[in-house]
């Protein structure tokens, strides 16, 4: 068995473990800090909405030797707006410019044909109205809202309402961080981004439900014993599924990282960035929230119940009594060891204060001859 597999088996059996629940305030603080950073980035920088949401024109040219920078400069000068230019796999260019109407589109097309030395009839121009992008945004928000409601209802039925609330908080946490990263990085938000966001929600829930299922099984009849508190069982549930969560997250992140860093960065397929960044950040945030946010939050909510408070009180009292008994036993053992040492003192050894003979009176006089 590999080292990771051996570690996973030991975590599952409870032989080793990390105190995730006991350090939950640290994880809460880290999450709050990251979330605030994402919100500030979103408020300051804003989202770079794609042409599908703002409306405009997309021009596609055949294969050309013109550089991306030069084409961007020409398109921006012709339109009066910032242009985004991407190199296509066939050697052509994709030029998108926001806030362009039909009349302006024809002028830009002629200007591009002249400056890029490409026949005008070979440049494809597609206009996108802002109303279409608005419809996409509204449908996305509607789908997200319906998804959240269904998730809460399902988890409340399958588990309990506290787990449903914790899962909802984790989902909002993941979405906020992902959107904030988009604002800080400046990547374009397209319909592919929306698809990526909806995809990561399901994955985030997958990891969370795995831990919740283990927690549900481990807490059956928990009030009938005095060995473990609810937080103890929750901590063991996280540890028992930790290696599985790490493995599934890494396996899922590897191909997404290939899309983001190799496809978008090395090969220059910029159209992959919109969906791959959402998937990459969302998958990582989902794995983090299922371990450090959702389960500790369930433990916090659950231990506010009177039954769990009483259980915790009994468990802590039993542990304190066992600790006191252990200390007393150690003290008794130390006394026994000391007594054994005294009894076993070697012959001629002096134990305690030695009696000194009196001076003068105790001397034996020499017999005179």
Description:
Helix content is 67%, strand content 7%. By secondary structure, it is of the alpha+beta class. The chain has two domains: 3-49 and 132-313, Multidrug efflux transporter AcrB transmembrane fold (Up-down Bundle); 56-128, Alpha-Beta Plaits. The strands form two sheets. The chain has a four-stranded antiparallel sheet. Strands 1-6 form a two-stranded parallel sheet. A hairpin with a 5-residue loop joins strand 3 and strand 4. Helix 1 runs antiparallel to helix 9 and helix 4 (68-79) runs antiparallel to helix 5 (102-116). The protein starts with a helix and ends in a 26-residue tail after the last helix. Residues 343-369 have low confidence and may be disordered.
Reconstruct the topology from this structure.
Layout: H1 3-13, H2 24-44, E1 48-49, H3 51-54, E2 56-60, H4 68-79, E3 83-87, E4 93-98, H5 102-116, E5 124-128, H6 130-158, H7 161-185, E6 188-189, H8 191-218, H9 230-240, H10 242-266, H11 273-302, H12 306-343
Parallel strand pairs: 1-6
Antiparallel strand pairs: 2-4, 2-5, 3-4
């Amino acid at each position: 068995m590999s080292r990771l597999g051996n570690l996973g088996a030991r975590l599952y059996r409870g032989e080793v473990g990390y105190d995730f629940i006991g350090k939950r305030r640290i994880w809460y603080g880290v999450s709050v800090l990251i979330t605030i950073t994402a919100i500030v980035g979103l408020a300051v920088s804003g989202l770079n909405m794609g042409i599908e949401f703002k409306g405009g024109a997309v021009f596609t040219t055949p294969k050309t030797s013109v550089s991306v920078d030069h084409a961007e400069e020409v398109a921006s000068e012709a339109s009066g707006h910032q242009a985004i230019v991407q190199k296509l796999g066939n050697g052509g260019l994709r030029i998108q410019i926001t806030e362009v109407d039909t009349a302006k589109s024809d002028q830009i097309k002629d200007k591009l044909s002249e400056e890029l030395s490409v026949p005008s009839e070979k440049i494809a121009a597609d206009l996108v109205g802002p109303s279409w992008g608005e419809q996409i945004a509204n449908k996305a928000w509607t789908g997200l809202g319906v998804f959240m409601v269904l998730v809460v209802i399902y988890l409340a039925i399958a588990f309990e309402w506290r787990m449903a609330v914790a899962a909802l908080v984790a989902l909002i946490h993941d979405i906020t961080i992902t959107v904030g990263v988009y604002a800080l990085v400046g990547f374009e938000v397209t319909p592919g981004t929306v698809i990526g966001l909806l995809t990561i929600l399901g994955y985030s829930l997958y990891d969370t439900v795995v831990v919740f299922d283990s927690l549900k099984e481990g807490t059956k009849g928990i009030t009938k014993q005095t060995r473990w508190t609810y937080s103890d069982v929750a901590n063991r549930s996280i540890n028992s599924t930790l290696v599985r969560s790490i493995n599934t997250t890494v396996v899922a992140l590897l191909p997404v990282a290939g899309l983001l860093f190799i496809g978008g960065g090395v090969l220059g397929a910029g159209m992959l960035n919109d969906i791959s960044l959402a998937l990459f950040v969302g998958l990582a945030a989902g794995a983090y929230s299922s371990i450090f946010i959702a389960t500790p939050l369930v433990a916090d909510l659950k231990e506010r119940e009177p039954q769990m408070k009483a259980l915790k009180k009994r468990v802590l009292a039993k542990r304190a009594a066992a600790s006191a008994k252990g200390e007393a036993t150690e003290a008794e053992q130390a006394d026994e060891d000391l007594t054994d040492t005294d009894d076993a003192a070697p012959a001629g050894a002096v134990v305690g204060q030695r009696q000194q003979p009196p001076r003068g009176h105790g001397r034996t006089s020499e017999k005179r001859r």
